Amino acid sequence: LLALLLDPETTNEDLFQNHIKGPDFPTAGFIMGVDGIKEAYTTGRGRVIMRGKAKIEEKENGKEVIIINEIPYQVNKSNLIEKIADLVRDKKLEGISDLRDESDKDGMRIVIECKRDAIAEIILNNLYKQTQLQDTFGIIMLAIVDGVPKVMSIKEVLDQFLLFRREIIIKRTQFNLKEAEARAH
Predict the structure, then answer these.
(1) What tens digit of pLDDT does each residue of 50-97 get?
(2) CA-to-CA separations, 46 to 19, 20, 35, 117, 140, in angstroms, rounded
(3) Strand, helix or coil at 160?
């Protein structure tokens, strides 16, 4: 917003390069690639591929463990765990010996124990492919402008917000002036 106030000729590309890197989802995770973000910021519509944050650790007994600390935005943790359990039960996902939810007040932690002969990287890739551990988030920057719904670029959205703020400040100042004049009268 400050960049637009200082230079109204700022482009979408400049905003993307120097000021707004991308959406910041509350459940964290990774955004895979920037093409969807660029498309959303320039056209008003785009698709962002999100992936949960997982790491592979090796236990002392030689087994590998996949630990998921972050999941994509708007993915329900219990539904994700249930889906993984269903895939294991239906034998569509092989190599998992145990699945636990160790989440507490400190944060989320889903532990997936692999069988001794299983390769954790392959299991993790299958989890990304078959569950919501990797998901797509559709972006539509739709707003009502002058009573009409309109899909806008990031610059248009910010310009409209600045116009709104100016209008609010003017109305507030006029209200305060009227009150002060009435008091003075």
Answers:
(1) 999 999 999 888 889 999 999 999 999 999 999 999 999 999 999 999
(2) 19, 16, 8, 41, 7
(3) helix
Task: Identify the three-state secondary structure at position 138.
Answer: strand
Sequence-separated (6 or more) residues with CB below 8 Å from residue 56: 64, 65, 66, 67, 120, 121, 124
CA distance linking residue 56 with residue 62, whole number of Å:
12
Q: CA 143, 149, 150, 151: dihedral to nearest 10 degrees?
A: 60
pLDDT tens digits along 165-185: 999 999 999 999 999 999 999
142 is written with which tokens? Answer: 């739709």
d(CA 111, CA 55): 10
